[in-house]
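User: hey, got a sec? need Peptidase A2 domain-containing protein folded
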Amino acid sequence: MIMNVEVEEEITFNLKDLNEGCGSQDDPMVIKLDIANFTVHKVLVDNGSSADIIFRDVLKKIGLEDANLSPVKTPLVGFGGSEVNSLGSIDLPVSMGEEPRRITTMVRFLVVDTQFANNVILGRSGLNLFWAVVSTYHQKMKFSTKNGIREMSCDQKEAQKCYNLSLRKGEQEERGKRKERNEVEEADDLKRFKLERIEPAEQHKSVELVLGEPDKITRVGSNMNEALETIMIEFLRKNVDMLPR
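Assistant: Yep! Here you go:
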């Protein structure tokens, strides 16, 4: 039996891979990809993500707003620690590199309708489809093609723009949350204030505590029977000096 064996080139990184004038090695890895015959910028390469994600507004821009999506029930976790339900999944052709060292393959994206600084997130699944290896220190990604190793460098200007935008968005969300918390606290304070107040439970009428002195009055319930009302008024008049003024 004869087996076809592919000879793979070794993917390595060394000091020569460091770009001159390279900024911070802590920048997120941001590249551009060709997706469904459109060049899409601001693609975040995130090998910490188990999913490949494309955002709904990107589908609109490339004319796939009305595409049929396959249902997905599992929510995504990681957007600010909260769960986000995807609208569904879609398979799209994705190309990396330039000819003759170019690879095109189908990638299954989860479609999410939320605001995000990047257009696409390429996670572990997508990276594995391209046999891609990422070095954040070198700010590069390399992958094998039938014509040799191809490399892509991080667009650090775009990466920094996206990062700063995400920070501003996070600050805006935090301000919004603080505002909501303050509004809730104010509402709670108002509720407590209302509960602490002693309010008549029924209609009332004014009664002079000291006959002939109309400035010294109080209120009693108007629904009391005559006998109980008489007892209440006499009690108040006897203890007028103890009542708050």
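Quick note: DSSP finds four helices and 13 strands in the chain. Let me know if you need anything else on Peptidase A2 domain-containing protein.
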